[in-house]
Amino acid sequence: MQRRVRASKPRERPMRTVGSSREKTWPRIRTKGIDLICKTGFERMNLRKLAKESGIQVGSLYNYFSSKDEFLYKVICEIMSDLLATIEEAIEGTSNPVERLRIYVRTMVVWHCERRKEAYVSHNELKSLPKAGYNEVRSLRKRFEIILGDIVEKGCASGDFTVACRPVTVVAILNMLTSISEWYRPSGALRVELIVDTYEKLIGNMLLLKHQ
Prior knowledge:
Blueprint: H1 22-40, H2 47-54, H3 68-91, H4 97-114, H5 116-124, H6 131-158, H7 166-178, H8 180-183, H9 192-206
Helix pairs in contact: 1-2, 1-5, 3-4, 3-5, 3-6, 4-5, 4-6, 4-9, 6-7
């Protein structure tokens, strides 16, 4: 007696999870990675934990980067590029050095307060980058110094600023601004606007600003 062969049903393909597109998944991976780095430091962060926090398989991470080091490099480059674009857009169309300085300071303070975790990772995990990536990111960070240096130089030329040593002054201002992510806490008593006003006055005093 011949056995009847039952036709097998076509296997149903699993439906794509809502929100699992590349455009939505990478920002989630990036955010979770930044959170993990802030909690444990880059050295102790592992990709298995990152995948779990992101809601994807470990192997899926390699659709976005090839290694843990590349993940950090990609994240820091994106953070720095975003901040740089924000500053350039903010000061565009303003030629007065006094106003450009105020915009630069305000933009940096607000960004470092509102995006504290990103700022923290981009400044404190540079040491964890491989040499090639480190050098590239340093070149990107140099743009912030160049923009501020140009503002100070033009302010000195117009008679609005007076500084003893422009390079030292520029580095000192940048260190003041980038260190905000080290101590600012959203739950603290200090409001962002108060920090902005304080930094504007402090930096204005450093440059002997005549229009305060």
